[in-house]
Amino acid sequence: LYLAPPEDMASATTMHHRRRSIIQLAFLLLVASPAAMLAAGGACESEEFPAGRSYATCADLPTLGASLHWTYDAAASSLSLAFAAKPPGTSGAGWVAWGINPTGDGMKGAQTLVAFKSSGAYVVNTYNLTGYRPLSAASTPIAFEATDLAADEGADGKVRLYGTLQLPKGMEAVNHIWQVGSTVANGVPAKHAFAQENLDSKGSLVLTGAGATDAAPAPVAGGPSAEEATGNLETETAPEAAPAPLAGAPSTEEAGGDLETGTAPSPAPAPSSGSAAIITTYASAPVFILILVFAGFFATV
């Protein structure tokens, strides 16, 4: 009969406790990661709208704490949407905006809906953004027929902008932009801040699927030029529709100045839906956790 020395017994006990701790840690991580994934990816699903307003799909946008909710009727080419974001500054003093850009990936050329308070009540104006000059107090025509325009403010201070857009047949993916501002002066939304998150508030959206919030692809030659960065554009007439944007790096966002409006451009073909697919990494997290856990387990053997 062999009796192990005390130091060997102590070592075995330590190894046993270490293995048990690793197993417990693995269990906690595997249980916690799905909950964390749901919390990170499902904030838009907790948004509550007034009766009669419900949407098939929602996406948490990557900047400005904004979310987009929509239902797309492909047969009718009709997009019913709600955009929610909290303007900076005093409650009720700012504005929120969402739009589709049929000719590029930035602000210039975007066909936008802007919600703000006028005479104490929320209104929604349409603007075709053609350059960098102050907006007008009145709406300007946009490329898409807009109906059911309305806005309200939620209990969390977010302004919810509602509307329905009639899109061209076959448009399944679009470049979209969103923005918030802190001030409405004399019934006119003032320019927004130019922090990085404001400049990055654009992306590609797949209307017929679960959506995407990736950065928008850069437009090909013929789309908005680098002159957008000068903050001194004065496009009075609407630009011709450019070819559909191609996959690539995001273009540099406009660097300064106010936006002006003009007549609406003709919509360009939508970007390929393949370029806007969601990239989901959450599902692989438990696999990496298991690999790390077992690596640590065998390292102690």
Automatic annotation (TrEMBL):
Native organism: Aegilops tauschii subsp. strangulata (Goatgrass)
Keywords: Membrane, Signal, Transmembrane, Transmembrane helix, Transport
Biased composition (Low complexity): 241-250, 261-273
Annotated signal sequence range: 1-39
Chain segments annotated as transmembrane: 276-299
Domain DOMON: 64-181
Pfam families named among the record's database cross-references: DUF568 (PF04526)
PANTHER family per record: CYTOCHROME B561 AND DOMON DOMAIN-CONTAINING PROTEIN, OS09G0501100 PROTEIN
Identification of the protein by name: DOMON domain-containing protein
InterPro entries named in the record: AIR12_DOMON, DOMON_domain
UniProt keyword annotation of Heme present: no
Subcellular location: Membrane
Region (Disordered): 241-273
A cellular-component GO term for this protein: membrane
